[in-house]
Specification:
Layout lengths: L13 E14 L4 E12 L5 E7 L13 H8 L4 E5 L11 H15 L1 H4 L1 E11 L1 H11 L20 E5 L13 H5 L2 H6 L7 H5 L14 E6 L7 H14 L3 E6 L12 H14 L4
Parallel strand pairs: 3-4, 3-5, 5-6, 6-7, 7-8
Antiparallel strand pairs: 1-2, 2-4
Pfam family, one: BD-FAE
GO molecular function, one term: carboxylesterase activity
InterPro entries: AB_hydrolase_fold (IPR029058), BD-FAE-like_dom (IPR049492), GDXG_lipolytic_enzyme (IPR050300)
């Protein structure tokens, strides 16, 4: 069968660039260096678009830049440039290295905004679990220059909207374990010491410690049946933000456990897309 069709050109071509090196960090006990990488999804030859930075979870122990690209591509088609960024895990470096890495990625993307068609004044950040923690830390520390390390320091790492999923907001209120078990807890490995015995230092790695009225808009997602990061952690973050006078919404997903399939349904991603469209001014 031969068939001739007419196709109206309404959408741009989307491109995925993978393994883009955005920073170099110490490796092998400080004797060598290695690249940190990001994947970026962007449309070619369009007006500048806001950028959403995605941060993968994994208890600060493991992470994957590419694991969620299928969903991030759908988000890109909603009008965003989307970048998934790598950060050092806790077996490589302790906090605040992870936060420094995310901020380095944001500065890199702003410095190369012309290349990727990004509006550097419209950045959002989103992540799950440990990535949710880093999402909030990034959003709340835009003016904390002590966390900006590396290159492109002439650019700000501040963002204009944040969507954390099931984040640990207050390490001091995570379920308590025995001293031996606590040493192996993800939050202790991230901190480099027992979080229960070094609460003052632990609180410096807690998003809830950085809340002010100047926080960017937040959309928090948390399952009510979360057995890993209790739902009360999402509630605590929401209450701290609203008490400070910040713009925040909490979406409680009834019956959802940690990182389960509820969060990967189109209904949830539409809520996310609508939030970023509103806050980052996508027409």
């Amino acid at each position: 069968m031969k068939k001739v069709i007419q196709v109206a050109v309404k959408e741009p071509q989307y491109v995925v660039s993978t393994d883009v090196a955005f920073a170099q960090v110490d490796a092998w006990f400080g004797h060598t260096v290695r690249d940190l990488k990001l994947d970026v999804i962007y449309p070619e030859h369009t007006e500048k678009r806001p950028c959403i930075v995605w941060i993968c979870g994994g208890a600060w122990l493991q992470m994957s830049v590419s694991a969620h690209l299928a969903y991030l591509c759908d988000l890109a088609r909603e009008g965003f440039v989307v970048a998934s960024v790598q950060y050092r895990t806790s077996n490589e470096a302790v906090f605040p290295a992870q936060l420094e890495d995310v901020k380095a990625a944001i500065r890199y993307l702003k410095a190369h905004s012309e290349r990727y068609g990004i509006d550097p004044e419209r950045f959002g950040v989103m992540g799950e679990s440990a990535g949710g923690h880093l999402t909030v830390m990034t959003a709340l520390t835009g003016g904390h220059k002590e966390f900006d390390k590396g290159d492109y320091l002439e650019y700000s790492s501040a963002v204009q909207a944040a969507c954390p999923w099931y984040l640990p907001a207050d390490i001091s209120k995570m379920p308590r374990l025995s001293d031996v078990e606590m040493m192996a807890a993800p939050e202790s490995l991230m901190l480099g010491k027992n979080a229960a015995l070094h609460e003052e230092e632990a609180m410096k790695a807690c998003p809830i410690s950085y809340v002010t009225k100047d926080a960017p808009p937040f959309l928090l997602l948390h399952g009510t049946n979360d057995h890993t990061v209790p739902y009360t952690q999402g509630e605590a973050m929401y209450e701290a933000l609203t008490k400070a006078g910040a713009d925040a919404d909490l979406i409680a997903i009834e019956g959802a456990d940690h990182a389960d399939l509820h969060f990967f349904q189109r209904e949830v991603w539409k809520i996310i897309a609508d939030f970023f469209k509103e806050k980052l001014n996508v027409k």
